[in-house]
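Action item from last week, closing it out:
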Amino acid sequence: MKFASTRLIAADIKSMASFYETVTGQTADWLAPVFAEIVTPSATLAFGSTDTVAMFKEGCAEAGHNRTAILEFMVADVDAEFARLKDKVTIVHEPKTMPWGNRTAQFRDPEGTAVSLFTPVTEAAKQRFGSR
């Protein structure tokens, strides 16, 4: 089994795709008017409009109600990325070093999902992510 992607259901798919284009610096691929994705070297982030929910099962997903997941992006310098994004996002917390060795900043996307940018800073964290 291979983990393929994370998909967010969005009431405003254009706003969501634009937000993540700003965060990642990559352009979304629009595979249909109701579906887009940003493919990074390590994972794919997909966006489906609320119109796609009925294709699976009516009511099985709801835009703007995610409070359990945190999307994490490893970056070379979390402080620099935070400085670049801080006036464009809703901040949850400024950069700080977590007990597991990552320096992390967190904010929310336009529909409320938590997004973290992090840089491994301790030797153990650097080893976990192969960034020595």
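Closing note: The chain has a mean pLDDT of 93.
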